[in-house]
Design a protein that fits this description.
Layout (H helix, E strand, L loop, with lengths): L1 H7 L9 E3 L7 E4 L3 E5 L3 E8 L2 E9 L4 E2 L23 E8 L8 E8 L3 E9 L5 E10 L23 H6 L7 E6 L5 E8 L10 E7 L6 E3 L3 E6 L5 E7 L14 E4 L4 E5 L7 E2 L2 E7 L2 H16 L11 E3 L12 H14 L3 E4 L21 H4 L16 H9 L3 E6 L4 H4 L2 H15 L1 E6 L7 H17 L5 E5 L7 H4 L6 E2 L12 H11 L8 E5 L21 H7 L4 E5 L7 H23 L1 E6 L7 E7 L5 E8 L6 E5 L9 E7 L2 E5 L2 E5 L5 E8 L8
Parallel strand pairs: 21-22, 21-28, 22-23, 23-24, 24-25, 25-26, 26-27, 27-28
Antiparallel strand pairs: 1-2, 2-3, 3-4, 4-5, 5-6, 7-8, 8-9, 9-10, 10-19, 10-20, 11-18, 12-13, 12-15, 14-17, 15-16, 16-20, 17-18, 29-30, 30-31, 31-36, 32-35, 33-36, 34-35
Length: about 700
């Protein structure tokens, strides 16, 4: 019994030491009272611990035997938003292994907790397959005063007065609200600031990158969630990821998230998202090698630890009728019966009813007088099944779908009013729908998380449902409007519903959706992206003489544009033209056979960013590097043949099998050669190395 207890929890005071790997031999932690070490097989980090404050000592990339730090940091980090009082702190060290969310991978969690008028708790989490260690600080108590900071002194107007920057550095005071402070060793570094846009009802271009070659003359102060620092001589790099809403959507605003101080060659990650005591945002620094490909793999692998890909739950082809703009006007038992029959014929995995299944009316309803918050106050039975539209309830529709091996989903809007004060009611309702009807897929809409309390209660809502459903309920987080967690705010809860595009409003072009998937996939795991394709026979009069209008593409091409994501059929299935049912079922059936292989690998965008005339696509590379897939598109351009660099497929020879589309592909020694005979066509292939298990 004592041995089992030690596997779960190990507690030592400041002067003690502990080394721990229970159940996770690749993950370890050790604390000797003065130095904390946490590592897995990929990275090792060390901090000096002085009176309860942490100073970074080492960041070692074990895969490449690279030490990233030039010297121990003189700045403690993480450090709270307000200055700490001068007092003695004792430190308690605990650690445990397990699966701390039903959708997470198993991990080692380490906590350092201090005594004092402001009690600090540092939480570290390390997964076996992640190339970094996440860190989160919680500060509780009183006694903190205004913090001095040097961040505001950086990046000001040049005065023309020459200053000894080394002397300037020695005069700096502690930076408040610091998450990481690292003095880097490599001399030649490229810094990339990645800015993502949500509220996609108003934004179509979603990914922006700014680059700097770091220089001793130029300090930087940058906003954002994601930054990459890469050694230009080696292709090795570090990724700084703040797991938080985008800057505009954070309840507590901070103008600067990353600083570069040239006098120390110092990178600082700032802004824990608190305006006083409380739980800060989690962040992680990931190491990588091999340039862009290694960086994408590291980012995707980390996200897959927070939400493990489950082939029985994830990357499902989901249909939703809202894209045909009938809104809730046609939602009833008879219409949904037709949708289920048509969905079975097409090959849909999940039939989802958007707004309109419930008794209450939202502001988007065809019924007048709807609301967009305060649902429980508007009607205590707001979230009951609409008895007029579904006099027999949802059970007959769900049973009919299950008979065709389809699952079921609904639209739901957690009540944002009073900072999600009704989160427990909302969670109970989702769990009731899940347990009573088998509703596993929930599209989340109408979210406005304007305060820290709202943010915390929204997280409680998701956590309650995930925990009590054991991860069976999957949420689609809508990022199309309002103030929402966005791309990195709540990574583990489910896919991101990226776009509302309608031909009715002349807003849907297939190459734009493909472009957003291609660009987002460099940073956001495509298994976390819900991307749409529409009925291309609707509203053709709005695209006169447009060679890139939706009707210019085949249904199979439209499906292929979202095939390496969670496909969304944004249409009424029963109103699709015959061409969809002629072309798509064989392609969808083959995709279902292969999708576990696609999403078990690392999905890398290749070629050019889609723009309507590009040569573009994706590869998925198996973890062992011996097999994978390629999905290539020839947009409206004159070149039927082209070549891509695919260093991840470096063996001398591979066999290639065409799975869909029209064309041919060969791969050898890191080069992919493709031929697609016609414009606005695609080819999808399986790649296997002869002589391996995958190639037999």
């Amino acid at each position: 019994m004592m041995a089992n207890l030690m596997r779960v929890l190990c507690v030592f005071l400041l002067s003690a030491a502990c080394s721990f790997a229970a159940g996770l031999p690749s993950c370890r932690a050790q604390f000797d009272g003065a130095e904390l070490t946490i590592a897995n097989s990929h990275v090792e980090r060390k901090w000096r611990v002085v009176n309860g404050l942490l100073y970074a000592v080492s960041f070692r990339d074990l895969d490449n035997n690279v030490e990233w730090l030039a010297r121990p940091s003189s700045q403690p980090a993480p450090y709270p938003a307000a200055a700490l009082p001068e007092e003695k702190r004792e430190v308690t060290f605990t650690q445990k292994t397990g699966r701390f969310s039903p959708v997470e991978a198993e991990s080692l969690v380490v906590e350092l907790a201090t005594t004092g008028s402001v009690r600090l708790t540092y939480r570290f989490q390390v997964f076996p397959d992640a190339r970094g260690i996440s860190v989160q600080l919680t500060a509780v108590g009183t006694g903190a005063g205004p913090a001095s900071t040097s961040a505001g002194e950086q990046g000001g107007t040049a005065s023309g007065i020459e200053v000894d920057r080394g002397q300037q550095a020695r005069q700096q005071k502690i930076i408040a609200d610091a998450m990481e402070v690292l003095d880097l060793a490599p001399q030649h570094l490229r810094l990339t600031q990645v800015r993502l846009a949500d509220q996609t009802d108003n934004h179509n271009e979603l990914v922006f990158e700014n680059e700097w070659l770091l220089h001793t003359a130029e300090p930087l102060r940058l906003p954002g969630n994601l930054f990459i620092v890469e050694n230009t001589l080696t292709g090795n790099g570090l990724i700084f990821l703040k797991e938080a809403p985008l800057p505009h959507a954070r309840p507590v605003k901070n103008e600067v998230d990353l600083t570069f101080e040239p006098q120390n060659w110092r990178i600082g990650l700032l802004g824990q998202g608190t305006d006083g005591p409380g739980e800060g945002y989690r962040h992680v620094v990931l190491s990588y090698s091999r340039g862009r490909v290694g960086r994408i793999e590291a980012l995707h692998a980390y996200q897959r630890q927070l939400r493990v890909y489950d082939p029985k739950r994830d990357a499902m082809f989901l249909s939703n009728t809202w894209g045909d703009r009938s809104r809730d006007g046609r939602i009833n038992e008879q219409f949904l019966t037709k949708e289920v029959h048509a969905g079975a014929k097409l090959g849909v995995d999940v039939i989802q009813i958007d707004d309109g299944w419930q008794k209450g009316a939202s502001s988007n309803s065809v019924r007048a007088g709807g609301v967009w918050a305060g649902y429980w106050d508007a009607d205590p039975e707001f979230w009951n099944v609409n008895p007029e539209r579904f006099p027999n309830g949802l059970a007959p529709i769900i049973k009919l779908a299950a008979a065709s091996k389809m699952r079921f989903g609904l639209w739901f809007a957690p009540d944002s009013s009073n900072d999600f004060a009704n989160w427990e009611k909302d969670a109970a309702k989702i769990l009731e729908l899940h347990r009573t009807f088998g509703v596993d897929y929930v599209k989340i809409d109408s979210v406005r998380a304007n305060s820290k309390t709202a943010e915390r209660n929204l997280r409680r809502f998701f956590d309650r449902v995930l925990e009590e459903s054991r991860g069976a309920v999957s949420f689609d987080l809508d990022v199309t409007a309002q103030v929402r967690p966005g791309y990195f705010g709540m990574i583990n809860v489910g896919p991101l519903f990226v776009e509302n595009r309608y031909t009715d409003w002349h807003r849907y072009w297939p190459h734009h959706t493909l472009r957003n998937l291609w660009k987002l996939a460099q940073y956001v795991d495509p298994a976390r992206l819900r991307m749409e394709f529409l009925n291309n026979s609707r509203n053709t009069q709005l695209y006169p003489d447009d060679p890139l209008g939706p009707a210019q593409y085949s249904p199979s091409y439209l499906f292929a544009t979202v095939m390496f994501s969670n496909p969304l059929g944004w249409f009424e299935i029963s109103n699709l033209p015959a061409s969809y049912f002629e072309e798509l079922p064989p392609l969808i059936a083959r995709w279902k056979q292969e999708r576990a292989g696609i999403f078990s690998g690392s999905i890398i965008p290749i070629g050019e960013a889609p723009d309507g005339v590009a040569r573009t696509g994706f590869v998925s590379v198996a973890k062992d590097g011996q097999s994978g897939y390629a999905l290539l598109f020839r947009e409206l351009n004159p070149s039927p043949e082209w070549e891509f660099s695919v260093p991840m497929f470096g063996a001398p020879k591979y066999s290639v099998t065409v799975l869909g589309g029209a064309g041919s592909v060969s791969i050898a020694s890191g080069k992919l050669r493709a031929r697609i005979p016609e414009t606005k066509q695609f080819v999808w292939v399986k790649i296997e190395r002869p002589g391996t298990a995958a190639g037999r």
